């Protein structure tokens, strides 16, 4: 417990309030919604077969199916309306690949988001050191964004096929006894697939979140500054003025000489001692008056 308290005390939980951490929290939550609504689904539909001989009728045929939607393994028994043993009928289709792929991406997104949040909160300095952490994070985020696109589209198509394969009106046509006019076959209860529709919606929400997070992770990589340095040349250091090139003394113009009033002496080009051993005219002009300031 002391270790947990120490980690919490040292944590930088303010990152959660920033877009980089806040979006990771949303990704973590919506990943749970995505794989749970799909992976925990189980549905059922009912049909009735009313034979000419009422004693052979079955008015409550129940067909149950669930994730991962290997419907070719789901079967039910229907009366033949001719006496004898009932007819065993299997559903059509195996849609486990798209469903399991969708759930797998959701689980791994959940795990990565949780791991990234832990890094943001407890080792943010190591994460930003040499920009290695943000660069790896950007690549992984881009991969997950692409995977959410592929898995969501695949599961949307798979769900459409699941709805068709579990439509009672379509399944009724598989029953041999329903081909005879004296027998009456109809659906009693349709499967509820609202949870599966929600899973597809959560899949595309995760796609939007992961694509949006690319920008905030990209800002941490330092690549933006590198690109800016490529297109915006840095200012070169200006060469020193050639002030000592003439006369071995001061330059022709004093940097402090200006148009403002005050005492502004102007140094000559040939300052120093003259040949007669005396001072030369170091000041070629008299000090300016204070008339400018007056």
Q: Could you please describe the fold and organization of this structure?
A:
The structure is a single chain. A hairpin with a 7-residue loop joins strand 1 and strand 2. This protein starts with a helix and ends in a 63-residue tail after the last helix. The chain is mainly alpha-helical. The strands form two sheets. The chain has a three-stranded antiparallel β-sheet. It has helices spanning 2-10, 19-39, 96-122, 124-128, 132-165, 168-172, 194-221, 223-231, and strands at residues 42-50, 58-66, 75-78, 87-90, 184-189. The chain contains eight helices and five strands; from the N terminus they run H-H-E-E-E-E-H-H-H-H-E-H-H.
In terms of quaternary structure, the protein is single chain
Strand content: 5-15%
Q: Helical element count?
A: 8
> What structural category do the secondary elements indicate?
mainly alpha
- Can you tell me the residue ranges where pLDDT is under 50 for at least 5 consecutive residues? 230-240, 242-275, 282-294
Please tell me what the overall shape is: rod-shaped
Overall strand count: 5
Provide the helix percentage: 40-55%
Give me the strand/helix succession.
HHEEEEHHHHEHH
What is the rounded distance between the termini? 78 Å
Mean pLDDT: 79
Largest sheet: 3 strands, antiparallel
Strand order of the largest sheet: 2-1-5
Query: Could you tell me the radius of gyration in angstroms?
Result: 41 Å
Walk me through the topology.
Blueprint: H1 2-10, H2 19-39, E1 42-50, E2 58-66, E3 75-78, E4 87-90, H3 96-122, H4 124-128, H5 132-165, H6 168-172, E5 184-189, H7 194-221, H8 223-231
Antiparallel strand pairs: 1-2, 1-5, 3-4
């Amino acid at each position: 417990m002391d270790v947990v308290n120490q980690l919490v005390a040292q944590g930088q939980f303010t990152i959660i309030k920033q877009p980089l951490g806040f979006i990771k929290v949303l990704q973590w939550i919506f990943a749970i919604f995505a794989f749970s609504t799909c992976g925990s689904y189980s549905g059922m539909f009912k049909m009735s077969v009313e034979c000419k001989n009422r004693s052979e009728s079955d008015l409550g045929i129940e067909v149950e199916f669930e994730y991962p939607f290997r419907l070719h393994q789901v079967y039910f028994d229907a009366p033949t309306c001719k006496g004898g043993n009932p007819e065993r009928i299997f559903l059509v289709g195996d849609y486990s690949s798209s469903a399991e792929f969708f759930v797998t991406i959701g689980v791994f997104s959940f795990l990565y988001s949780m791991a990234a949040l832990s890094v943001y909160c407890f080792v943010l300095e190591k994460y930003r050191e040499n920009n290695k952490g943000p660069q790896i994070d950007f690549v992984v985020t881009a991969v997950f964004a692409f995977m959410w696109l592929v898995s969501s589209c695949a599961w949307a198509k798979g769900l459409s096929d699941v709805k068709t394969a579990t439509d009672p009106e379509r399944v009724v046509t598989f029953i041999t006894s329903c081909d005879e006019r004296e027998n009456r076959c109809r659906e009693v209860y349709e499967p509820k697939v609202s949870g599966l529709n929600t899973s597809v919606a959560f899949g595309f929400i995760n796609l939007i979140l992961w694509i949006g997070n690319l920008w905030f992770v990209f800002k941490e990589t330092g690549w933006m500054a590198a690109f800016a340095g490529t297109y915006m040349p840095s200012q070169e250091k200006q060469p020193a003025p050639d002030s000592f090139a003439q006369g071995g003394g001061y330059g022709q113009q004093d940097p402090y000489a200006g148009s403002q009033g005050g005492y502004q002496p102007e140094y000559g080009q040939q300052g120093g001692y003259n040949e007669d051993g005396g001072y030369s005219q170091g000041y070629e002009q008299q000090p300016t008056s204070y008339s400018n300031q007056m």
